[in-house]
Design brief:
By secondary structure, the protein is of the alpha/beta class. Helix content is 45%, strand content 15%.
């Protein structure tokens, strides 16, 4: 009897271990997300989705451009189900490169406003970010800077700092101006603004805020949430002090960019990918992504006081699709104007 009990015990133990060791049984649903959104707080939103649906989310993070390259390289063998990218240029380029597939979802159509989704249904915006100007009132007269075009004013000679041409954020801003103001006006703006740049072009938005604060220049262009994160102390005390010495100027209307998602062309778990995308674009999901990163959700405005202090913003009428179609021309015009 003792021997039998022992045998039974090991059988039960084995069965238990066996179950645990099997990575996924046939009924377990999961989804692989390739994300260019590099925020730890996104994980909380995935967890909420996993708890509610029982669908396991496996996350692979990489910078936007390398994610696109990786998808290209992997082709049909890619494990990616859902692709998340920041910036209009990146998501529209992913669609152009045939890395995404069109989907039908009435909930996405309802939750994502017009202008923030692909007319071909391959991608949908999830969060919004405003491209603002950051200025040092001790260096420049902030009352004379209202719009991006003001950075071309000859009085700002040597006082403008810009991020380099590779940044999709600036490519999308230039594309935005091409649509808004036309090619000729954009060319004039670019030539004037670039001739005001005395520093080498910067690698990131945060370094621009620091340079403006340290009076290395008087004004630069950044995404609003970088300043908010610095003010909130996310990057440490020193950056909070830097950001405090600057003023944020929001043009009216303002260029608004997005982070967005689409289902991978060769998604194995397509239904699950659509389900997660729907959750991320829903009022709850979008707010879950945007609130802790100081971005704006799709339909509301971030309620954090730091962001509210930047003032209200009115998005201009340029669609994300338009930004994508003008991306190559924007890069060409930046190059011609000497934007390195
Ligand atoms: Fe960013």
């Amino acid at each position: 009897m003792q021997k039998f009990k022992k045998l039974l015990y090991s059988a039960v133990t084995c069965a238990f271990l066996f179950n645990v060791n099997i990575p996924a049984n046939s009924t377990e649903r999961e989804i692989k997300v390739y994300s260019g959104r590099h925020y730890n707080t996104d994980r909380g939103v995935y967890k909420k989705f996993a708890d509610e649906t029982g669908i396991k989310v496996r996350l692979i993070e990489a910078a936007g451009i390398s994610l696109i390259e990786r998808l290209r390289r992997e082709g049909k063998n890619s494990q990616a189900d859902l692709i998340l990218l920041v910036d209009a240029a990146r998501i529209t380029n992913a669609a152009k490169a045939d890395l995404l597939q069109p989907i039908e979802s009435s909930s996405l159509e309802k939750d994502v406003p017009i202008g923030l989704k692909d007319p071909d249904k391959k991608w949908y915006a999830l969060t919004r970010r405003v491209r603002v100007m950051v200025a040092n009132p001790k260096v420049v007269d902030i009352n004379k800077i209202n719009d991006y075009t003001d950075l071309a004013n000859p009085s700002l000679k040597g006082k403008v700092c810009l991020r380099n041409r590779k940044s999709p954020y600036n490519q999308s801003l230039v594309a935005n101006q091409i649509v808004n103001k036309g090619q000729q006006a954009t060319k004039t703006w670019l030539n004037g603004m670039i001739s005001n740049v005395s520093q080498p072009f910067f690698p990131g938005d945060i370094s621009i805020v620091r340079a403006v604060s340290k009076r290395k220049c008087g004004v630069g262009i950044v995404n609003h949430y970088y300043v908010a994160r610095m003010l909130a102390g996310v990057n440490g005390r020193r950056d909070t002090l830097y950001a405090k010495k600057t003023s944020v100027i929001t043009p009216n209307p303002a260029h608004v960019n997005i982070s967005a998602g689409g289902v991978a062309k060769y998604a194995i778990n397509k239904a699950e990918a659509i389900e997660l995308l729907e959750f991320l674009a829903s009022p709850e999901g979008s707010k879950g992504l945007a609130a802790p990163t100081f971005e704006h959700p799709l339909k509301e405005v971030n309620q954090n006081q730091i962001v509210k202090n930047f003032g209200a913003f009115t998005p201009d009428k340029v669609t994300v699709d338009d930004l994508g179609s003008n991306n190559s021309m924007a890069i060409r015009m930046m190059k011609d104007a000497g934007w390195d």
